[in-house]
Amino acid sequence: MESQFTNDSIGCRQSLSAGNSLKNQTGSLKTGYGVARAHHGELLQGVFEGPDGCLKRVLVSIPCGIYKSEVSFTPNGSDVVEIEPKWKVKSCRAVALTLSSLGKHKCGGRVQIRSNIPVGWGFGSSTSDVTAAIRATANALSERLTPHKIAALAVCAETACDATMFGKRMVLFAQREGMVVEDFRSSLPKLEILGFNTSPNGNGIDTIGFPPARYSWWEIEAFRPMVGLLRRAVHLRSPQLLGQVSSASATINQHYLPKPHFQDLKEISEEVGAVGLQVAHTGTIAGLLFDPGDRLKESRIEQAQALLTTIGIKDMWVFQTRETGLAHAKKVGKGNGNY
Amino acid sequence: MGITKIAPTVIESVVLPKLIRLDRNLYGASFFLMKLLPARFILDRARDAGLLHEGSVIIETTSGTFGLALAMLCKLRNYKLIIVSDPAIDAPLQRRLEDLGTTVEIVREPSRTGGFQQARLDRMAEVQAAHPEHFWPAQYSNPHNPGSYAPFAELLTETIGKIDCLVGTVGSGGSMCGTSLYLRLLFPQLRVIGVDTHGSVIFGQPDQKRMLRGLGNSLMPQNVDHSVFDEIHWVDAAAGLMATRVLHKKHALYMGPTSGAAYLAAQWWAKRNPEAVVVVVLPDEGYRYQDTAYNDRWLHEQNLWLDNLPESPVRVDHTLEAGSEWTCMDWNRRTYEEVMGAPFSVVKNNEPVVSIR
Q: Please, are residues B83 and B105 in contact by the beta-carbon 8 Å criterion?
């Protein structure tokens, strides 16, 4: 059984008429495709002043090419959007919202999601699905949407979303407004990341159900120098400075979404000479960051894997932030491949 | 982005310092009036907490630039400001405060212990009692004083990036403790060098009359977190004032004596650590000191003239070994009690009346 989502999201429910049907406007019913990669949690998550002077919850996502969501959308002349798998209701809603925003108020169709992104680990599976679904819908209508537009639709569909739709472009993103607070006008500088699941036996996190962190005034202020250093890190393309920002962000957020073994992880990061520690603020994954240009990188990563094993971490993987294809990602460690 | 904005008031235009390269690895953070940062943040937080409204009365005691910063903000925000001060306030500053609509009360007699600072606090308590609805910014104990320095830390990280050493004078503890704690989140190894002067109790010296004004204290401010500091320098008046002149003669930077004292310690440390990126905090401009630090005759009359800057400080192992010259000591992020063997206390009539930490 597929779930159904009636396309009346902006309240103009009419019967289909030949005048505004998709078929008559485009000449044919075309299947659209959309892809979105996962992210590997955040480099920074906190609160920052927006252009309007108001404080906003913000994040900087780390794009991750290991996993992706692929969506197809086939308009079928009905006024109902159907999705497979049926529990992905946010993506279903995103398609309906996209159709409405593109003026196709009475258009329905079939949405097919194929995703290998683990759910609830912090890989941003939901936003990846939603982003790919919006892209597929726009593609079916032969439209191109800006990342800003996709973000606005995504946040309507799922309350809060991350910056997946910006791809490699680095932005300070207000996840509850779907709005860019600061565009770093660059891609994330290249990092090599040893990722792992800090809670291999856990059931993941319900992203929306989790209460947002109530930062103290001091912590809110402390995000200023962190964002300042992020600007410098982008300007210098510096993995070291990025690592310092992510470690500081992880430390502050440890009070709100604690990762098991956090102190051990910080010590391992120091001991092996990683440039920093990074966590998924709405999930259980974390990563040690390395300078891809460091000639001792391989041995540092090997040493880190050995030390992580001693604190019970089994699933590990290595990827580079600027690599896009799945072929470049390599899985390491034991116990992988079971999701 | 990249478009120069018009400042809504003078505060926004001067609240952050200019960053100036003084040496290969030494950057000066040159403030117009550093105390604008804490004054603004303290008033913002009080307003957000519903403690301040148009026409509110603000009462503070200060003889220095914190009063000027408050006066500027209170004028622009329509608060009524009463400043309790002492004869150390210079006439031009007093006129400037009054021009901004501030009521200035001068305490004429020092207290037997704690000097004019204690006398000012006593008088302020009386003025506060007469205005029960007042707001007291309390720069020495309000955590929003050190907490106000995040925009400064942001400017440093954005412009310089990694910082290895921060040098600055300690008076209320706000700028050095506040900036350091923000920066240490990112750079845990950051070396923090506090600059004090002889006769200041902050780092354990016996209270005495101080010739170098604007740093040090006769009372222990709660906002000094001693465990922030790796190294302490005590700069004497002659060396501090001459360093102020060197900052001007060599770098054309016309700053006040606290800037000179900080610069003395910073340039020495930066030369000895050529690989480290050093930032020195220069808190205010030199115009208030035209008749003193920038007046050769006054310096000679006061016996404060030096032909050359001392090359290096005398290193001591304990605060109480410090003589009258420029002196330094490793503080090693210890508490006051860990260094001095007992918590700070002021003895009046053989009874401890103030005990902090």
A: yes
Rounded to two decimals, what is the model's pTM?
A: 0.90
How many H-runs (helices) and E-runs (strands) does chain B carry? Answer: 11, 13
Kindly list the residues of chain B whose beta carbon comes within 8 Å of any beta carbon in chain A.
Answer: 1, 45, 143, 147, 150-151, 153-162, 182-183, 185-187
Q: What are phi and psi of B194, to 5 degrees?
A: -95, 135
Q: pLDDT (tens digit, 9 = 90+) per residue, B181-209?
A: 999 999 999 999 999 999 999 999 998 88
Say if residues B62 and B83 touch (Cβ distance below 8 Å). yes
Where do we find the tokens 């520690």? A277
pLDDT at B217: 85
Q: Do A248 and B185 touch (CB under 8 A)?
A: yes
What phi and psi values does residue B123 have, to the nearest 5 degrees?
Answer: -65, -40
| pLDDT attached to residue A336 | 36
What pLDDT is recorded for position A257?
A: 82
Interchain pair B1, A217: CB under 8 A: no
Q: Compute the distance between CA of residue B199 and CA of residue B212 in angstroms, rounded to an integer.
A: 10
DSSP at B131: -
Between strands A109-115 and A80-84, the pairing is: parallel
- Which residue type occupies B233? H
For A125, the 3-state DSSP assignment is helix
Instruction: For residue range A82-112, list pLDDT tens digits in order.
Output: 998 999 999 999 999 999 999 888 889 999 9
Quote the CA–CA distance of A11 and A14 in Å, as a whole number. 9
Are the C-beta atoms of B93 and B288 separated by less than 8 Å? Answer: yes
ipTM over 0.95: no
Residue type, B318: H
Query: Which amino acid is it at A48?
Result: F
pLDDT band at B130; cut points 50, 70, 90: very high
By C-alpha distance, which of B296, B216, B214 is closest to B248? B296
The CA distance from A302 to A290, in Å, is 12
- List the one residue out of B178, B176, B173, B182 whose CA is nearest residue B223: B173
Mark the ranges of chain A whose per-residue pLDDT is less than 50: 1-27, 323-339
Across A5-31, b (16+ Cβ under 10 Å) vs e yields: bebebeeeeeeeeeeebbeeeeeeeee
CB pairs under 8 A between A and B: 61
